[in-house]
């Protein structure tokens, strides 16, 4: 078999194994040798199953594979069809455009899915075929991202997107999506009720750190997050036509609640905005692209570590403004309106801060009276 060659004028010749009926080796005019298995299917038609290249497999290795394949045929399986289906299994990157087209038809925040896929999920899993995903591998990666400093709520969102893609692919009948690898993987508690508020001293340290950032836009971004209480994307995507310096407001067109809201601007916030050059439609663009930042995590992570505040999240800047408002004695209704909460129960997490202010107020009133009521008069 090894010495045989394809005669001149022929495209290929076929050598048959005398000991194993159907096991063959085809030799092409280029000298390439390929092992295969010929058999008769249930309809009486001769079929051929390619085993592999002889430059990779020995005859004995190819013969063993041929025996396994023939056994599958004899037990009613169709390895040829299984191989065909296997080749049709798309990668995550290949199925993503269909997913995005689908979610854009009904999901208001589809742009967030697109950004999370582009920046996080596709760089890690984009080249994997759908049948190659393993739950343990995905969960390990997600847990590692939390350790890297990403909020649990954000990482949970990535898990939901991946699971949603597999569920939809299964409904669409896409090969490789018969099993959702994230089925049964519970989302971890984001513990959103545990708030982190920055003290005056911590804010001063953070200010120094962000001003030293290699990203010149990080300092004004952080400043506006602290001064307005806006969500991160509301500031990153902000355009100049949303800024009304005369009325001292920002217009947020697409809020989390799906409504337009006006954000009041303090004198300090106005000062930050007026100091910024209007180089493009966006207020705080990536100066390399003149488009909104896809992510500020790397610059933020460097700055917070430099300030000794590695536990502080970007979203905590929003909580900090709320705590300052509560500390100044403002009602939960006022805080809710500043933050854009559609329901005041969302703001009730700051009730303990407001309560401390009220207690301080009644203590001050008691001192004015000059009378102590701690014990009955004798």
UniProtKB/TrEMBL annotation:
InterPro entries, per the entry: CB, DNA_brk_join_enz, Integrase-like_cat_sf, Integrase_catalytic, Integrase_DNA-bd_sf, Integrase_DNA_bind_dom, Integrase_recombinase_N, Phage_Integrase
Start and end residues of each Core-binding (CB) domain: 90-170
Any one biological process term the GO annotation gives: DNA integration
Annotated coiled-coil segments of the chain: none
Entries under PROSITE patterns matching the protein: CB, TYR_RECOMBINASE
UniProt key word DNA-binding: yes
Transmembrane segments: none
GO MF assignments: DNA binding
Protein name: Integrase
Originating species: Novosphingobium chloroacetimidivorans
Lineage, highest ranks first: Bacteria, Pseudomonadati, Pseudomonadota, Alphaproteobacteria, Sphingomonadales
